[in-house]
């Protein structure tokens, strides 16, 4: 059915990734006395002044906003450790250093809400930004290398980094996969297209990431347009005005046009 | 059982400990994440959703009690935050499922395997959805088409299968994070084996393992 598909059901927004990170535990030092909190997500506390305790991140941030606690930055967030990580990250081309799965989100939350609790805040911040840049760059260069394959392994990649590359890598791998397995192409009308191909001695249809079929009703015929779009962007901007316009447009976009009269 | 307790491996005890310490919120988060990332509809987590609903209701009552009894507003707001988070998870989980149903309603309805994965409410929803969508297409387009092309499910009367029904694409790639080291998996029927370590993030085709 047209018009109701949502291609983004399976994508996580940055906010949703942050939401997941907020369940990570962190140590806080409360400055108030409070009974244990029996939440649905677990029991936390009791809270006593100057006695450190573990709470989920969202709770730490909520208390911090109200000035009720100090957050103890996690151990990996020290200048020495981060400097080392950055160094090793720069040295090794392919591998990623071990960092918490949610390090991007956690550091971001801390910088936003608990500036005064981080020693050498500006130093730490720029170090983490550098690490992030180096890692993202590494991801990008490693992406250039992989070819048609059924699995890609990337050790130590963090949640936010995965989320950034997920939409692109997923579709790109799918494209590779389809190139490798032409029989897996979800052909709407396999029999007729195979016949047409054989009859016209056409080259095998090019496949790219998305496969769309357009059905247009003209006076006498059903025309089947099927084409592979290089990017989703193109298809989004792509508004067929008329039969003629469509085939011209297909040619300019993909070099070849596939216009098969659907004989009935 | 005392006799078998001695035979438990460290891993099993580990498993058991994580199992009892895992809250329903964690389970719900997992269900939500899986549901969101998979192209097809997954079995409905009936028991889990029921438990979550009960806990939410209980917590709502508690928060109301707190408010009436003049508890510290700070504590009330913290409980409210916890409640909001769980509610968000539950709503988002149910909503993703509804989106999938809307997308693949005809396919889910005619495929027993998928149909059995729905909850009773979702089944009702699917039924209504199909009726409304069918009626809408009927009135706007199909009734004005030639006789041969009036089916909602088929291109034309000569089609043998329902070729206008969108199906979830199952041979797509998913991103997976392994929780522990696995034995080598044979992907895609190939000779190439791949062991996954606990911290590796892998992107692979679904359902080819």
From TrEMBL, chain A:
Asked whether the UniProt record includes Nucleus among its keywords, one would answer yes
Highest taxon listed in the record's lineage: Eukaryota
Domain DNA replication complex GINS protein PSF2 N-terminal: residue ranges: 14-71
UniProt domain GINS subunit: residue ranges: 76-169
Write down the SUPFAM superfamilies for this protein, in alphabetical order: GINS helical bundle-like (SSF158573), PriA/YqbF domain (SSF160059)
Q: Which CDD domains match?
A: GINS_A_psf2, GINS_B_Psf2
Q: What is its main location?
A: nucleus
Under the heading InterPro entries, the entry gives:
GINS_A, GINS_bundle-like_dom_sf, GINS_Psf2, PSF2_N
Enumerate the subcellular locations listed in this protein's record, separating them with semicolons: Nucleus
Is ATP-binding given among the entry's keywords? no
Q: Which UniProt keywords apply?
A: DNA replication, Nucleus
**Recorded family membership:** Belongs to the GINS2/PSF2 family.
Q: What is this protein called?
A: DNA replication complex GINS protein PSF2
UniProtKB/TrEMBL annotation, chain B:
Q: Does the keyword Nucleus apply?
A: yes
Which keywords belong to this entry?
A: DNA replication, Nucleus
Q: Which residues form the GINS subunit domain?
A: 57-130
State the compartments where it is located. Nucleus
Gene3D superfamilies membership: 1.20.58.1030
Per the record's keyword annotation, is Nucleus included, yes or no? yes
Family assignment? Belongs to the GINS4/SLD5 family.
Q: What does this protein do?
A: The GINS complex plays an essential role in the initiation of DNA replication.
List the protein's name.
Answer: DNA replication complex GINS protein SLD5
Q: Please tell me the species this chain comes from.
A: Hibiscus sabdariffa (roselle)
């Amino acid at each position: 059915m047209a018009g109701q598909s949502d291609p983004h059901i399976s994508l996580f927004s940055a906010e949703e990734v942050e939401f997941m990170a907020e369940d990570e535990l962190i140590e806080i030092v409360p400055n108030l006395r409070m009974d244990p909190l029996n939440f649905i997500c677990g029991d936390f506390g009791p809270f006593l002044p100057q006695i450190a305790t573990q709470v989920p991140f969202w709770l730490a941030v909520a208390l911090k906003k109200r000035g009720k606690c100090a957050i103890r930055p996690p151990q990996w967030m020290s200048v020495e450790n981060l400097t080392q990580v950055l160094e090793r990250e720069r040295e090794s081309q392919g591998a990623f250093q071990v960092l918490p799965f949610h390090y991007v989100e956690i550091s971001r939350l801390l910088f936003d809400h608990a500036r005064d609790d981080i020693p050498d805040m500006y130093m730490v911040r720029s170090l983490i930004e550098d690490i992030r840049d180096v890692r993202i760059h590494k991801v990008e260069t490693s992406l250039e290398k992989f070819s048609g394959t059924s699995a890609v392994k990337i050790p130590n990649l963090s949640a936010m980094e995965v989320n950034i590359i997920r939409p692109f890598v997923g579709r790109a791998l799918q494209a590779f996969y389809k190139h490798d397995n032409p029989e897996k192409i979800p052909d709407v009308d396999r029999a007729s297209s195979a016949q047409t191909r054989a009859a016209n001695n056409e080259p095998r249809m090019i496949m790219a990431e998305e496969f769309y079929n357009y059905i247009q009703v003209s006076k006498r015929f059903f025309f089947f347009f099927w084409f592979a779009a290089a990017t989703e962007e193109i298809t989004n901007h792509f508004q067929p005005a008329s039969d003629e316009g469509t085939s011209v447009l297909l040619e300019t976009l993909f070099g070849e046009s596939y216009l098969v009269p659907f004989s009935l | 059982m005392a006799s078998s307790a001695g035979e438990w491996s460290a891993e099993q005890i580990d498993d058991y400990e994580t199992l009892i310490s895992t809250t329903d919120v964690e389970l719900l988060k997992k269900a939500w994440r899986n549901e969101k990332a998979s192209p097809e509809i997954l079995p409905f987590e009936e028991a889990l959703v029921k438990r979550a609903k009960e806990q939410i209701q209980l917590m709502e009552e508690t928060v109301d009690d707190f408010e009436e009894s003049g508890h510290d507003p700070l504590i009330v707001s913290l409980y409210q935050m916890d409640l909001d988070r769980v509610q968000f998870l539950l709503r988002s989980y149910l909503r993703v499922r509804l989106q999938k149903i809307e997308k693949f309603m005809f396919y889910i309805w005619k495929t027993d395997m998928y149909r059995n994965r729905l909850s009773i409410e979702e089944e009702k929803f699917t039924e209504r959805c199909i009726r409304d969508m069918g009626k809408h297409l009927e009135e706007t387009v199909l009734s004005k088409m030639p006789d041969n092309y009036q089916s909602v499910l088929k291109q034309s009367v000569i089609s043998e299968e329902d070729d206008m029904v969108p199906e979830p694409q199952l041979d797509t790639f998913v991103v997976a994070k392994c929780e522990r080291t696995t034995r080598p998996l044979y992907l895609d029927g190939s000779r190439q084996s791949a062991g996954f370590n606990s911290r590796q993030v892998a992107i692979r085709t679904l359902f080819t393992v």
